[in-house]
Amino acid sequence: GHSTVQLHSLQLLCALALVAAAAAALPAQVMLAMDGVFDIHDLHIWNISTSMKPVLTAHVHIGPDADANMVLQQLETYVRGLGIDHSTIQICNIPPQLEQADEQADV
């Protein structure tokens, strides 16, 4: 209907504004919605200098059944689509049980 069209164009405007500001909030949401992506840590987009294109770095935690190479490929394709040619995306899987054990360990 009419409202969804308005919403879509608003989302597009927000996306453009965020990308222009090199804010990582929207890419993080899109990446989290991708198949196999369980969690994302330390997602940063930065401009090292005005003459260079922005650089993206992220640590990605994938699901237990996910294919790391496939996840990496789709993330890099998405990032290139944002106009970011250089990205460092690391797959760093830590089972949730271990993370919880770590937090409880400092007794």
Describe the protein.
- By secondary structure, the protein is an alpha+beta fold.
- The longest helix has 19 residues, at 2-20.
- The chain has a 3-stranded mixed sheet, covered by helices on one side.
- The chain has helices spanning 2-20, 25-32, 68-81, 96-105; strands at 37-46, 55-62, 86-91.
Strand count: 3
Helical percent range? Answer: 40-55%
Count, helices: 4
Uncertain segments are: none
Can I get a quick summary?
The protein has 107 residues and is of the alpha+beta class.
Labels describing this entry:
single chain; 107 residues; three-stranded mixed beta sheet; alpha+beta; 3 strands
Draw up the topology in text.
Layout: H1 2-20, H2 25-32, E1 37-46, E2 55-62, H3 68-81, E3 86-91, H4 96-105
Parallel strand pairs: 2-3
Antiparallel strand pairs: 1-2
